[in-house]
Amino acid sequence: MRLTGSEIFMKCLQAEGVHTVFGHPGGAILHGYDVLLDYPIRHILVRHEQVAIHAVEGYYKASGKTGTAIVTSGPGATNTITGLTDALMDSMAIVVFTGQVPTAVMGCDAFQEADVVGTTRTCTKHNFLALTTEELPRIVKEAYYIARSGRPGPVLVDLPKDIIMGRAEFKGYPDEVDIRGYKPSVNGHLGQIRKAAELVATARRPVIYGGGGIIHADASAEFTELVNITQIPTTLTLMGLGALDTSHPLWLGMLGMHGTYTANMCMVHADLIIAIGPRFDDRVTGKLSEFGKNARIIHVDIDPTSIRKNVHVDVPIVGDVKRVLTQLNAELTKVKRDWRAEFEEWYGQIAEWQRGHPLTYYQHPEGRIKPQHAIDQLYRLTEEHDPIIATGVGQHQMWAAQYYRARHPRRWITSGGLGTMGFGFPAALGAQAAFPDKLVIDIDGDGSFQMTMQDLITCVQYNLPVKIFIINNKYLGMVRQWQQMFYGKRYSQVDLEIQPDFVRLAEAFGAAGLRVEREGDVKPAIQKAVSTPGPVVVDIVCDREENCFPIIPAGGALKDIIEAGDPIPERLFQGWR
Amino acid sequence: MTDPKHYRKHTLSLLVENHQGVLAKISALIAAKAYNIDSLSVAETLDPTVSRMTMSVRGDEWVMEQVVKQFHRIIDVIKVVDLTDEPHVNREMVFIRVNAEPANRAEILRITEIFRGRIVDVTPTTYTLEVTGEEGKIQAVLELLQPFGIQEIVRSGTLAIARGSKTVPRREESRLRVASRKQAVAE
Predict the structure, then answer these.
(1) Are residues B147 and B112 in the same domain?
(2) Is the pLDDT of residue A33 over 80?
(3) Which of A118, A183, A187 sits opposite B178 (nearest CB)?
(4) What is the pLDDT of residues A66-76, one digit of tens each?
(5) For A147, which residue in chain B has the nearest alpha carbon?
(6) Between 20 and 30 A from A482 (CA), which of A45, A85, A199, A463?
(7) Around Cβ B30, how many Cβ atoms within 10 Å?
(8) Is residue B170 domain-resident?
(9) Per-residue DSSP letters for A282-349?
(10) Stretch B147-167: mean pLDDT, rounded?
(11) Cβ-proximal residues to A184 (8 Å cutoff; 6+ apart), any chain
(12) What's the gap between Cα A22 and its chain centre?
């Protein structure tokens, strides 16, 4: 059967099980969009290509299904760079198809031409340039396989116009892939797993430190089992939230720069750190020379490059977290040990930290709304719906991590590695497209939301009823906090007091808008937003200068953690005077 | 974590897919991670779909572990071997254009002979030599010719091959491995 490249492409997408794509058409990809009309694939037309990429990230993170985006050449493709980099840092399985000018004029500065495989080389897990119509099925197959296997990541396929318009014999979608240079390990090395089990069985002050790998591997059941077998206190990274139910008695809270005092102290004083699927990010380790000084470290990760990248590891185990945990749990169930009795002293120490250093805020009944209070209320009022939470980047993100106690995997979507402002709302849009009937909440900042808010119209058009809660302090809050703490309170370019009326803005888009300015109105507004059909923007006007605590100053060790009310040591001053 | 004082030279041998963009991926990685690459040579292997890259990299054990892992991460890289501590042969070829005044010609010829080099081009005032050897030998011949006035040198970069009968895995073999992995995934 001789078909055009576009037809072959659509047939491949169908065979791959792609039901929903996000995208934006344009000149070079016109032929593909023409053929799309004849295929039962739902296309969500975004208003900016960056939104398409964050939306497929949200779609992937919420559903576990590889996300697909289609954009045109040149500006369409270059607008995806931020999203691709974000997806690479946070291991999001997405495949992005970009139009390209015809092969005959590539390299000649043609209209809407950009060297897309060149510019995306370092921000994709892999990229392809299709040079013949015949090879399209193999490329599409490999693209999806590479995106979702091993450590997931973004894959880009560049499709020149003549390749998708040309004809070739379509022999069907390949059943398997054969990539010589790509063989991700699945099972952990048994010898290493036994060594790890021995260390766990003899530790006196161990801590489990879980990361995003648990979510990607769908291994939260196995992870919880590890915690239950060993009774070891557990912390998670920002990306790992949801891997362990936050109501679990051994839950310590998130660790890292804005993690709980207790979680960070556990890392400082532990004699064994059991790292399951994290990558020892600098926001977690703090000063590397001080990290885990007294501890042995076990590190399980599917990506060999993550192991010993930042931190020396005693027992590295390369493999799929789900498989390795199954193997490790089997070893640990054989251990004859009264775990709880052996950890009594350790538990005592932890309880003392928890009592002395809880996460706190104070909401004056007549005062301005504290952002923590708004998020805490949001959690209490919506938790029963098991909602999907997305966030932007900044103070509100950290407060959401602390106070919206994500209880289940794939319910917490945030930009961790790249820290992309503007990520939250499109990610929520994508998650909502994957789960049209679920409550999807975007906890956003006024700064973050303004970066991608134009796509509110997309939510309206496709009836994606995302509930957006803007934690509005009319500042670029996190930057302001750093300027206050480390730059002598010299506020430079952080004031967002001049801003749109978010309520009228929402209404202009055809969505509902609400504003809350007093503590007493928070609860009814949340209830109203949840019960209102369609997208809703809730503008929560908050205390402008509230700071996010605890904080480990950049470059500081975990033990340098600063809590609310602590003096800022003079040596941390980074500014000019 | 790492101290350049303890760096030493490593010879890496890479097998990579022989298609467009692969060299760019490798060099983009080198640039992004700021690795110290002394030389790089690339050419097709017996299997025309595969290229061999030989690379000289400076680093300590930790740096080298990262370099090897990062190269492995590139999908188009099939195999990476650090030959440094394995028995191997390495050679570099250099062309040297040196001033050859009549008075010096005999001496230059003698040096060329001692180093088992060849004269590949002659002009009334210059000789062009071809010399092959390990890095030390190349360095030595350059030092000996220096007094005559070296006009230009062109070096190939190091090439290396493991001693013994170890060879590149054949394609069938790697297919088998892919198949068994797929089975593992299916389980």
Answers:
(1) yes
(2) yes
(3) A183
(4) 999 999 999 99
(5) B75
(6) A85
(7) 18
(8) no
(9) HHHH-SGGGTTTT-EEEEEES-GGGTTSSS--SEEEES-HHHHHHHHHHHHHT----HHHHTHHHHHH
(10) 90
(11) A149, A150, A151, A302, B181
(12) 18
Confidence of residue B180 (pLDDT cuts 50, 70, 90): very low
Give the contacts of A287 (CB within 8 A, at least 6 positions apart): A555, A556, A557, A560
Residues B82 and B97 in one domain: no
Res. A427: pLDDT tops 80 = yes
- At A139-178, the pLDDT tens digits run 999 999 999 999 999 999 999 999 999 999 999 999 999 9
Backbone angles phi, psi at A528, to 5 degrees: -65, -40
> What is the domain-level CATH number for residue B12?
3.30.70.260
From chain B, the residues in CB contact with A129 under 8 A are: 20-21
Put simply, the answer to whether B73 touches A305 (Cβ < 8 Å) is yes
In this complex, which of A122, A177, A308 lies closest to B32 when CB atoms are compared?
A122
Same domain as B96, residue B82: no
pLDDT at A571: 87
Mean pLDDT of A536-565: 95
For residue A383, the model assigns a pLDDT of 96
Last residue of a domain, one of B86, B103, B125: B86
| CA of A520 vs chain B CAs: smallest distance (Å) | 52
Q: Which residues of A are catalytic?
A: 49, 111-112, 161, 478
pLDDT band at A329 (very low <50, low <70, confident <90, very high): very high
Give pLDDT, residue B33.
Answer: 76
- A273 Cβ neighbours under 8 A, 6+ residues apart: A206, A207, A209, A267, A292, A295, A296, A297, A298
B182 to A176: CB separation less than 8 angstroms, yes or no = yes
Amino acid symbol at A559: K
Residues of A in contact with B78 (CB under 8 A): 180-181
- pLDDT (tens digit per residue) in A358-410: 999 999 999 999 999 999 999 999 999 999 999 999 999 999 999 999 999 99
Q: Do A149 and A217 belong together in one domain? A: no
Reference A542, options A460, A429, A462, A444; nearest CA is A444
Query: Each residue of A269-299: pLDDT tens digit?
Result: 999 999 999 999 999 999 999 999 889 999 9
| Least Cα separation, residue A308 to chain B (angstroms) | 8
Residues B35, B102 within the same domain: no
**What's the structural domain count of chain A?**
3
Helix (H, G, I), strand (E, B) or coil at A397: helix
Q: Is B23 on the interface with A (CB under 8 A)?
A: no
Q: How far apart are CA A418 and CA A411, in angstroms?
A: 20
Judgement on whether residues A399 and A534 belong to the same structural domain of the protein: yes
Check residue A352 and give its pLDDT.
98
Both structure tokens of A464: 């994606």
Nearest chain A Cα to B17, which residue?
A181
Q: Using alpha carbons, list the distances in angstroms from residue B9 to A74, A308, B40, B69.
A: 42, 21, 13, 17
Taking the Cβ of residue A125 and every Cβ of chain B, the question of whether any pair is shorter than 8 Å is answered with yes
Number of domains in chain B: 2
Residue B187 falls inside a structural domain: no
For residue A339, pLDDT over 70 is answered with yes
Residue A107 to chain B, least CA–CA distance (Å)? 14
Categorize the per-residue pLDDT at B149 as very low, low, confident or very high, splitting at 50, 70 and 90: very high
Q: Which of A117, A118, A304 sits opposite B72 (nearest CB)?
A: A304
Residue span of the structural domain in which B113 resides: 89-160
Instruction: For an interface test with B, give the residue of A180, A189, A285 to mutate (most B CBs within 10 A).
Output: A180
| Band of residue B28 on the pLDDT scale cut at 50, 70, 90 | confident
Are residues B12 and B47 located together in one domain of the fold? yes
Domain span holding position A476: 371-549
The shortest CB-CB distance from B175 to any of A178, A182, A187 is to A178
ipTM over 0.95: no
